[in-house]
Amino acid sequence: MSRQIISTDRAPKAIGPYSQAVRAGNTVYLSGQIPLDPATGELVGGGFEAEARRVFDNLLAVAAAAGATLDHAVRVTIYLTDLGKFPIVNDIMSGYFTEPFPARVTIGVASLPKGASVEVDCILVI
């Protein structure tokens, strides 16, 4: 099975040795996105809600580059440095996905790259 690398300028460039996404067959694996502005490569300001929206906007852009939407997601993983933000992420996520919702796990972590407070990755099936 061949792999196709997915990339877009509408999402931040990778900050390490990885691709924004990889398609293998009809499955697309989106790398974790933190709240980086694609234009500057810097964390967005505006508080946690703005950060979470930027993360989902970045994922949406990568999904679009793969010819998909977030409604193609079958699995989402959310990493939070503060699990108290769980209800906020739920509210924001509901604006990016429609029912039936994908499977999901949320994990509390001590820290994330660049001091981000949230990171999300997902798997799409097209």
Explain the overall architecture.
The structure is a single chain. This protein has a single domain, classed as 60s Ribosomal Protein L30, Chain: A, CATH 3.30.1330.40. The mean pLDDT is 97. It contains two helices and six strands, in the order E-E-E-H-E-H-E-E. It has helices at 48-65, 86-93, and strands at residues 3-6, 21-24, 27-33, 73-80, 103-108, 118-125. Strands 1-2-3-6-4-5 form a six-stranded mixed β-sheet, covered by helices on one side. Helix 1 (48-65) crosses helix 2. By secondary structure, the protein is α+β, with helices and mostly antiparallel strands. The protein is globular and about 40 Å long.
Give the strand order of the largest sheet, numbering strands 1, 2, ... along the chain: 1-2-3-6-4-5
CATH topology: 60s Ribosomal Protein L30, Chain: A
What's the CATH H-level homologous superfamily? Answer: RutC-like
Q: Report the order of strands and helices.
A: EEEHEHEE
Rounded to the nearest angstrom, the radius of gyration is 14 Å
CATH architecture: 2-Layer Sandwich
Biggest β-sheet strands, sense, barrel: 6 strands, mixed
- Shape descriptor reads globular
How many DSSP H or I helices? 2
The averaged pLDDT comes out at: 97
Q: Percentage of helical residues?
A: 10-25%
Structural class of the secondary structure composition? alpha+beta
**Stretches with pLDDT under 50, minimum 5 residues:** none
Integer tally of domains: 1
Structural descriptors:
single chain; 126 residues; alpha+beta; 60s Ribosomal Protein L30, Chain: A; 6-stranded mixed sheet; 2 helices; 29% strand; globular
